Automatic annotation (TrEMBL):
Family: Belongs to the PRAME family. LRRC14 subfamily.
A single GO cellular-component term on record: cytoplasm
Superkingdom of this protein's organism: Eukaryota
Record-given protein name: Leucine-rich repeat-containing protein 14
Annotated compartments: Cytoplasm
Keywords: Cytoplasm, Leucine-rich repeat, Repeat
Any Pfam family: LRR_6
Organism this protein belongs to: Accipiter nisus (Eurasian sparrowhawk)
């Protein structure tokens, strides 16, 4: 249910002309709820006005949109038009700043007094304060002509910027302010015994200049669920491209402004003496592939010192060469990078050894994902052992690493060697389809990682008698910490799952269990439901289509990559099974738990969300 304030905000932003005029009068405290209403309803013009006059230094998507009751606006397919409107508003704001005279300075002319003295006032607009310099006759012409220093500074008055944006100043000792009536409206008049009278005009910027204090735009947290986004949503890839193009545009505009003003803004050394305009730092999760590589590279390299600067939190790259991957990693600002996800890049063991040394500069790196890297230790070559040692050494140089994904790399018998140099225990380990051996699971059970693991993915392994007992032992060792377990496509039959249940039910904090793609029957699922009722935190179970719901017997259970479910499963029979499982949950007092055969729910779970 929406609050009364939110409903009023929604009404205001729905009327564009009135909303624009009202922003001059709206208290700063109402901006967040106005932003929420405009974002939810897709009011792009209102969003541009709000961002262009944002009265706070930070605008955070997660803070403003991440928590509304039990739902998140970031999970409701953020509108592409809304995201674009916000980016365009930031670009427009920075273009206005760049186009100001003297790039951050503002001239206010002094008055012409009866004695013939004409002065000039130069306002130096800093981030937190304003300085007013009173210059002697012809000062402005001297400075603009490149003869800075020829005009004497009569005094420097400390000044402050009020909440409204008005600049006020304190006159130096010995100066007195004349009473009202001596100057024009909106001006202040000061007098000093040894100088003619000088007029100081109060500096009142336009509403957008007055209110916009944005320094950080935090766009992290946008979801990238391709299966449920729709044409109106914005993918992480599209958002990255839009931000990169914006950075390049602002950097080009800055260069043009500096060129136009270089002749009239010269310092004593002949170089430009213009003050650097206040910039905006954009924090975002970036996704890049071969198509968008060039534009992101240019944005990171040319915009590093520009007015609009990209700062990455989670970096995702697909289908890039080793050289391209290294180039982008070197262009990222190290501070704040918490995840690097390199998938489908076909790097191989040699490529990983070339890329990983460039990760050591990310001292805050918590998550490293390297799935589908085309590593196969079973194809022994002359450099395999040396490559594994190199890879292990580089992993050991990531002191803060908590999550590691080596999915679809064939690592049979090499897990101890790869993880042996890690300095701290992992909390998330994804080893799907890694062809692990019993010795690999035994190593995990005895390692420092087992008691700390919160997420474990061992999908794609054949848990027959050969691997089932090592898995039971591993679950016992991780039982105190494990929150998320994936055992998809593991050939778990009813009998094998029942043998695993005692160890599984010891994982008292388990929240999510993925069993999709296993040959389980309806009775087996009912047994699983009854036995796991002892797990109070279990809220999501992704179960397979029961084998007794198949129309015809497939050679294997449908997997996550198959698209012929409707040809294999009797929908009416499966609907009856789903309804029965729901009734069992309700009758057991667990109506809040979700049991589903849909992988869409499963894809949203992430280590950082645990």
């Amino acid at each position: 249910m929406h609050s009364l304030v939110f409903l009023c905000a929604r009404r205001l932003v729905s009327y564009c002309p009135g909303a624009r005029r009202a922003l001059d009068l709206v208290p700063a405290e109402l901006y967040p709820v106005l932003f929420q209403a405009a974002f939810l309803d897709g009011r792009t013009l209102a969003l541009r006005d709000l961002v262009g006059t944002w009265p706070f230094p930070v605008l955070s998507f997660e803070r403003l949109l991440g928590h509304r009751g039990r739902r998140s606006l970031l999970e409701e397919k953020p509108s592409k038009l809304c995201i674009q409107a916000i980016i365009l508003a930031v670009v427009a704001h920075l273009r206005r700043v760049l186009e100001e005279p003297c790039c951050g300075t503002r001239w206010v002319p002094g008055c012409q007094t009866p004695s013939g003295w004409a002065g000039a006032v130069l306002l130096l607009l800093g981030e937190m304060e304003v300085t007013m310099l009173v210059l002697g006759p012809s000062a402005r012409a001297a400075v603009e002509g490149g003869s800075s220093g020829l005009a004497p500074v009569l005094f420097c008055a400390p000044a402050t910027r009020e909440e409204s944006g008005t600049v006020t100043l304190t006159p130096p000792q010995g100066w007195s302010e004349l009473p009202d009536g001596h100057g024009s409206p909106g001006s202040r008049l000061f007098q000093f015994p040894d100088f003619p009278t000088c007029l100081f005009i109060r500096f009142l910027p336009s509403p957008s200049e007055r209110r916009c204090r944005l320094r950080v735009l935090d766009m992290t947290g946008l979801q990238d669920d391709d299966t449920d986004r729709g044409p109106e949503g914005m993918s992480l890839w599209s958002g990255t491209v839009a931000l990169a193009k914006a950075c390049i545009e602002v950097s080009k505009h800055q260069s043009e402004c500096l060129k136009r003003g270089s002749k009239r803004r010269k310092g004593p050394s002949g170089t430009s003496a213009a003050l650097q305009p206040i910039g905006v730092e954009v924090r975002a999760d970036l996704f890049v592939n071969g198509t968008s590589y060039s534009v992101l590279r240019d944005a990171l390299q040319t915009g590093a010192a520009g007015p609009l600067r990209l700062k990455c939190r989670d970096f995702h790259a697909e289908e890039l060469s080793v050289a391209g991957t290294v180039s982008l990693l070197e262009s990222l600002e190290p501070a704040g990078v918490r995840r690097v996800d390199l998938r489908f890049n076909n790097l191989g063991l040699g490529g990983l050894c070339a890329v990983l040394p460039h990760l050591a500069r990310f001292t805050d790196l918590l998550s490293l994902k390297l799935p589908y890297s085309n590593v196969d230790v079973r194809r022994l070559t002359a450099g395999t052992d040396a490559g594994l040692r190199c890879l292990a050494t580089q992993l050991g140089r990531l002191p803060c690493l908590k999550e590691l994904n080596l999915g679809s790399s064939r690592l049979s018998g090499k897990l101890r060697q790869l993880l042996g140099d890690l300095q701290a225990p992992l909390e998330s380990l994804e080893l799907a389809f890694c062809y692990l051996l019993p010795g690999d699971l035994a190593f995990l059970s005895q390692s420092l990682h087992a008691p700390a693991l919160r997420k474990l993915d061992l999908s794609g392994h054949d848990f027959s008698e050969n691997l089932l007992q090592p898995l039971r032992h591993l679950l016992e060792e991780t039982s105190a910490s494990l929150l998320h377990l994936d055992l998809m496509e593991c050939r778990l039959t009813d009998a094998r799952l029942e043998a695993l249940l005692p160890a599984l039910c010891r994982c008292s904090h388990l929240r999510c269990l993925g069993l999709f793609g296993n040959p389980l029957s309806t009775p087996g699922l009912k047994t699983l439901l009854r036995k796991t009722l002892v797990l109070p935190d279990l809220r999501l179970v992704v179960y397979p289509y029961p084998v007794d719901c198949y129309i015809w017997e497939p050679p294997r259970p449908p997997s996550a990559s198959d698209h012929f479910f409707e040809d294999v499963v009797d929908e009416e029979r499966f609907a009856a099974v789903s309804a029965e499982l729901c009734r069992m949950l309700v009758s057991s007092g667990r109506a809040d738990a979700v049991w589903t055969a849909s992988l869409c729910r499963h894809g949203a779970l992430d280590y950082f969300a645990l």
